[in-house]
Amino acid sequence: MSDEERFRHALGEYATGVAVVTFLNHNGAAIGLTVNSFTSLSLQPPLILWCLDNLSEWYSQMKLGLAFAINVLASDQRDIAERFAEPHPDRFDGILTESGLADLPLVKNALATFECVVEEMHKGGDHLIIIGRVAQFQSGDGSPLIFQRGVYLE
Ligand SMILES: Cc1cc2nc3c(=O)[nH]c(=O)nc-3n(C[C@H](O)[C@H](O)[C@H](O)COP(=O)(O)O)c2cc1C
């Protein structure tokens, strides 16, 4: 195993939840991608963060003030996690959504949803750290989808 593979393997020991980040691109089209880098950052002010791979086609569209939503997936939403991590002509096809602030697409029946505005962006190695200020949120009951060692645990 190369050092990079050993590093990935060790990182994979840390179990995380799974979320879909949604936002509208500059043409107003809905964009979504699966992330497990979401984490809480601050209670006062209310801030969260996630990290975007600098190879992502959305890297250049991230800008201060952009609205986005974090949709925390429930244990029965594994198919949604897979959809938003794979190439697909229309990732939202057949996915139930509702409209949030500024028409943000929100994944229906997500365990929790945080509607945010990009407050800060920082380069971190091969990722961009995106800090969002939470404008509105909701949460419900249920169990989360978990990701560990490269697999989903429902
Ligand atoms: C469980 C899981 C977690 C992921 N977490 C991240 C992440 O935190 N940041 C990221 O940029 N990509 C992450 N990805 C990869 C993206 O979902 C995937 O590369 C992306 O959807 C590729 O398409 P796009 O960049 O064209 O949207 C993750 C994928 C999976 C399956």
Task: Write a brief structural summary.
The protein has helices at residues 3-11, 78-83; strands spanning 16-17, 19-24, 30-35, 39-42, 47-53, 67-72, 97-99, 105-107, 112-124, 127-139, 146-148, 151-153. It is mainly beta.
Key structural traits:
seven-stranded antiparallel beta sheet; 154 residues; binds flavin mononucleotide; mainly beta; Pnp Oxidase, Chain A; globular
Structural commentary:
This protein has 154 residues and is mainly β. The protein has one domain: Pnp Oxidase, Chain A, CATH 2.30.110. Helix content is 10%, strand content 45%. It has helices spanning 3-11, 78-83; strands at residues 16-17, 19-24, 30-35, 39-42, 47-53, 67-72, 97-99, 105-107, 112-124, 127-139, 146-148, 151-153. The strands form three sheets. The protein has a seven-stranded antiparallel sheet. Strand 2 (19-24) and strand 3 form a beta hairpin. The longest helix is centred in the first third of the chain and has 9 residues, at 3-11. The site of flavin mononucleotide has 16 residues, from strand 3 and strand 5.
